[in-house]
Structure formats: C-alpha cells, structure tokens
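The authors assume throughout that readers already know how a fold can be written as discrete tokens. A single example would do more here than another paragraph of explanation. An entry of this sort, consisting of the sequence and the corresponding backbone structure tokens, reads as follows:
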Amino acid sequence: DEEEESESESDEEDEEEGRKGKEVINTTELYHNGSVNRVRICPHSTESRVFVSTWSDKGKVHIWNIAPQLSGLETDGQQGKDISKVKPFYTFGGHVEEGYGMDWSTTRQGYLLTGDCTRHIHLWTPRESDWLVSQSTFSAHGSSVEDLQWSPTEEHVFASCSTDKSIRIWDDRAQSHKANMITVPDAHDADVNVINWNRMEPFICSGGDDGVVKIWDLRQLKSHAALFKHHSGMIYIAEYCICIMCL
C-alpha cells in the first residue's frame, strides 16, 4: 500500500511539473468590418496608446489602439468580452478603392502612408487626437500601389512599387505632382508586389509576379545590383534581416 501511495504521489508530481513546463498562449481579437488586406503596427507607442493600422477591402483604413487588448493578455486574454463593441480609434474613407500599400515612419512619430488600387498615395500627419490626411495625393504610378516603405534614415523620403512594374522614390517635402524624384520604370517583368528597405545599407529589395527577387543600390538605380531567381511562383513577401545584411 505504501508503494502504491508513493507511486501515486510521484505521478501527481510529474503531472504538476508537466503543467508548469507547458507554455500558455493567450490571444485576443478585434472585430474588423471587411477582410483585412494589410496590417501594420506603429513603431512608436506609449503605455496607453499602441496603434495598429489596417487596410479593409471596404476601401477604408482604420487605426486601432490595441493597448487595452495587450494589457488584457497579461490577465485573461480578454476572453468573454464583446469584440464587436471595440471601435477603431480613427477611420479614413477618402481612398477611392481598397488598397494594400501601407507603412508607418520609423523616423517621424505617427506619420503614415497608404496607397490604393487606383494608384493614389496619401500622407497621414498626426495631430493631438487624430490625423490630417493629405487631400492631394502622390499619383505618378500608372496603376495599383502594392507596397510602400519609408526610408529608415531620411525622414521625408519613401519608396513605392506598383503593378505598373515600376519602383519609385519620393520626397514628401515637394508638391505632390513633383515629389517623384527617381523612377525605375521596368524594375520587374511583371507586377512588383513588395519592397523592403535595408536599415544598415542603402539597398532596397523587391519581389514580383515574375518570381524574381532583386537588390537595388540607391546610389545607382539604373540597374539592379543582384538578382535571385529561385522561386517558382509569385513573390509577395521579402524582408531584410535587422541584425545582418541578408534577406
């Protein structure tokens, strides 16, 4: 009997240790009106404000303050709460159609770019409790803006790519119709879906429907610096490592 009790206690201890060793993942969610085309988190945050932007297929861009949800993850994961009652902090409905291009600036707090399928790019300037979204748009592309990237070092400079096969470099200090400073007209043989700015060196990588990844040296954009053709399908995601200079 003593042996059986000892074995039972040992099993209970093993089970308790197993429970302690298991990782628990809490989750929370927000109700979003329409499909989410793209989501980006603002790199600048405070304890009470953590902003996330979403592109909706309804043609609207929403800004959410997810600070309460993050706080709830440390307790009950917001379980049981009515997610439909959580409203966006701010919504912009000025785009003509839905879009995919969207990026927060890392050098200027609260600045945001959004680009839609009708080639229009809007600049968002933060105010105390909302954003001033430019009515004049950056519209040099010939068709849909697929991705946007702020420069990690030049606070007024950003890059864009499009289904018109081009990559463009802009300066938002210029008037919108003159802001397109550099254009690579046929960057790919098909739609350019994604661009990513190297945070350590003056390089941009791009990926397109042609299944090719290209590296561009911003000091000489007449032709690509490197080309990788190892994918068999379209490329939608390409990103530099933040620790070393690699893809």
User: Anything to note?
Assistant: The chain is about 10% helix and 35% strand. The chain has a mean pLDDT of 90. The longest helix spans residues 2-21. Residues 154 and 234 are 30 Å apart (CA to CA).
